[in-house]
Design goal:
50% helix, 12 helices, 2 domains, 386 residues, 6-stranded mixed barrel, alpha+beta
Amino acid sequence: MRRVAFLMLVGDTAKYVGILFGLFLASFLITQQSGIFVGLMSRTYGAISDLGLPDIWVMDPKVQFIDDVKPLQDTELYRVRGVAGVQWAVPLYKGMLKARLDNGNFQTCVVLGLDDSTLIGGPPEMIAGRLADLHRADGVIIDEIGANDKLARPAREPGGKPIPLGIGDSLELNDHRAVVVGICRVSRTFQSNPVIYTTYNRATAFAPVERKLLSFVLVEAAPGQDPEALCARIAADTGLLALTGDGFKRMTYEYFMKYTGIPINFGIAVILAFLVGSAIAGLMFYNFTLDNLRHFGALKAMGAGNGLLLRMILLQSAIVGVIGWGLGVGAAAGFGRLTSGSELAFKMPWQLLALSGGAVVVICAVAALLSIWKVIRLEPAIVFKS
């Protein structure tokens, strides 16, 4: 009977393709929109992921997310170093500074100032140059995308391609000369601004004059120390907010979830995709069942019970569900592949596959229930009607 159910399903090509299209559309849109949402939200804490070495971030208690920098006094660094269980603590400057380009335009950049002696918190991957080259006079390291795009030099001729910044090139940061000594690859920022690394003292010299310039204190726990317990001890001894890397990511993520319209916008898109897919696939599958009522009636007349017919319908819905879901998530993965490296954020963890798969299961289950109800009430005598 499985063969009969399959032949019955593919026999009506138009409706078979229509059901697959509805499920494909639902799974593709749900996975694609959710993937863009996850990719966009992961950019909000990309800077925390890139600085993976420290166990703990120490900051002003009123900080709400990674870009909400509230500077501290430099003396706070020594207070943190004095807390029991701290193996080492280094300063980190994080600020938004304007870079002056050769054409006279200005570009806002994320500037990270690393501890002068250790350079802890450097970029996760160097493409050209060395991290140690930051010790050279006026040295800065620029992320690859920023060097090739927003910080690139103007084309030599109209309509030509911009000239990427390379090692040895210079630019102005807040009216200070900076020389490129390296190119790195980092996570994209939420606002897609170029990322520039330099030493802490040089970054504070680039920055506008302020009384407080220390953005964060990066802490490594001593061997055998529980990071969560050390966070509580740092907070108790200094009055500052101390969070593990995962805790800081979670706080940043929750801020954007709570105070921005991003979740609502993408949530509406996912719900609409589910409804559209349900409408197309559900109605097409129900119409397919109505068109095949005579065949189901004939099977009933030959002695097939309701249980057998229900298993046939469930098999048909499972076949179109698996194929439609596979095509949808495959197309979403291809979309992500094509847009990788662009401004569009896209990330597809396994949870999104489970989400779209669950949505397709619900759509197929609802469509099958409607069809099952019709078949259960079917009288075998319908096959003898003209």
